[in-house]
Amino acid sequence: MSAEKTNQSWGGRFSEPVDAFVARFTASVDFDKRLYRHDIMGSIAHATMLEQAGVLSIAERDAIIDGLTQIQAEIEAGQFDWRVDLEDVHMNIEARLTDRIGITGKKLHTGRSRNDQVATDIRLWLRDEIDVIIKEITRLQEGLLEQAEQHADVIMPGFTHLQTAQPVSFGHHLLAWFEMLSRDHERLVDCRKRVNRMPLGSAALAGTTYPIQREITCRLLGFEAIGGNSLDGVSDRDFAIEFCAAASLAMMHLSRFSEELVLWTSAQFNFIELPDRFCTGSSIMPQKKNPDVPELVRGKSGRVFGALTGLLTLMKGQPLAYNKDNQEDKEPLFDAADTLRDSLRAFADMVPALKPRVEVMREAARRGFSTATDLADYLVRRGLPFRDCHEIVGHAVKYGVATGKDLAEMSLDELRQFSDQIGDDVFAVLTLEGSVNARDHIGGTAPAQVRAAVARGKALLAAR
Ligand code: ARG
After folding, report:
1. Do 355 and 378 belong to one domain?
2. DSSP 159
3. Based on the domain organization, do 212 and 346 belong to the same domain?
4. Which top EC class is given (predicted)?
5. Are residues 386 and 285 part of one domain?
6. Which residues are catalytic, by number?
7. Do 240 and 304 have their domain in common?
């Protein structure tokens, strides 16, 4: 690109062309061209409004809309020549419009600025992205509900400190992830309300002298509200930061989910089987089947946290109103949305295919003294204070470690060494089933409660 060919749209003020490197350095078209559809949508609404406001004639409006529609088709057919010397998506499309329809094309920008235009485009784009992302969340949640329902009776060890704690239903564990995703969904739906406010009409920063009717563009573009201050309208990027914050939380959840899948597919745990299509092998170790999808998602969470930190830093200390800094908002935002959407998609595809190794899980729960709390609770029901029960059971576990026996494997006489309050009804509470069934309240791990939670989850998804 030669310096002579650089952008002419502000040419009047300049006595020499922009330096060729500076033109490339300041250009954003390489990444903001993905806003083309929303840019054209915004321009069509703006032109429609300008006609109703008496600024454009009907013929001018129609020529503009027609030209923009054809430009969209050109772009989608891969026939559009994106020019770096035209800086960004907005000026590329406007220049092409003037090529196609002549002088009328130059009237489109009446009463607006790229400052309100770009803020409008990003919001329209992000609104669509959020809609796709929340559908993927729902799809993943549906998979979790199906699995939870099917495996409500499968027992695994529940962990604290990654040490065996108490037996839980595998379905119950799956539903913990369901809860996290429900909050992610709520957050994105809430964030969308603030994304969906219209800056168009703010113009460069102070509004415009033309008799624009912002209610019209607001309605045409499906915005929920009109931004109430033009300075704020062109400079506010809270909505992008908020999205990245919600996306970061969702990725943090997926990274925790990933970590458990990585652990559980290891030979040491061997709790679940991940179908081959979500794994890869090693180029050197023939025995390897690596859980690549969860590992990659765990790693990708960092990009999204980076986007959040980047955008907060971008906005910190910026004076009103628009500053060129803001051009830096797009790449992190795009990347955060792409990363979250793809990670959710991979998980939504993978979760229905997870297969628990029921016997391995059960054996692990049985081996880890996971019903020790149940024994203590049994003694409490016999009238002993909980602290004393805790100590009695501690001795029983110590004996079990020394003799290689789980609590349920000890004879009544062996158990009675630790308390004469223990009777032969104790074995009912020492079984895994007895333990999970006893936690029979809302949010507890009893299989009946898991099934009730699945039903609540299904109702929640049906109401979306
Ligand atoms: N490419 C610019 C951006 O992404 C568009 C707005 C430019 N406005 C300006 N006055 N230079 O922010």
Report:
1. no
2. E
3. yes
4. lyase
5. no
6. 161, 282
7. yes
Q: Which of 244, 142, 175, 221 is nearest to 464 (CA)?
A: 142
Identify which of 312, 318, 137 has the alpha carbon closest to the alpha carbon of residue 242.
312
C-beta 94 within 6 A of ligand 1: no
| Residues 296, 180 share a domain | yes
Banded model confidence at residue 2, pLDDT cuts 50, 70, 90? very low
Pocket test residue of 24, 327, 330 for ligand 1, highest count of atoms within 8 A of CB:
327
Nearest to 111 by CA among 31, 253, 237, 230: 230
Q: Is 327 in the pocket of ligand 1 (CB under 6 A)?
A: yes
| pLDDT tens digits for range 358-415 | 999 999 999 889 999 999 999 999 999 999 999 999 999 999 999 999 999 999 999 9
Give the separation between CA 6 and CA 379, rounded to whole angstroms. Answer: 84
Say if ligand 1 is within 6 A of residue 240 CB.
no
Assess whether 148 and 231 both reside in one domain: yes
Range of the domain at 56: 3-110
| Dist. CA 341 → ligand 1 center (Å) | 27
> Is the peptide bond between 204 and the residue preceding it cis, with omega within 30 degrees of 0?
no
The CATH number of whichever domain residue 327 belongs to comes to 1.20.200.10
Q: Provide the CATH number for the domain around residue 442.
A: 1.10.40.30
In this predicted model, what pLDDT tens digit does every residue of 234-283 receive, in sequence order?
999 999 999 999 999 999 999 999 999 999 999 999 999 998 888 888 78
- Find where tokens 């329209």 sit: 124
Tell me the C-alpha distance between 106 and 113, whole Å. 13
pTM assigned to the model: 0.94
Tokens 């006893």 found at: 438
Count structural domains, the chain: 3
Ligand 1 centre to CA of 409 (Å) is: 73
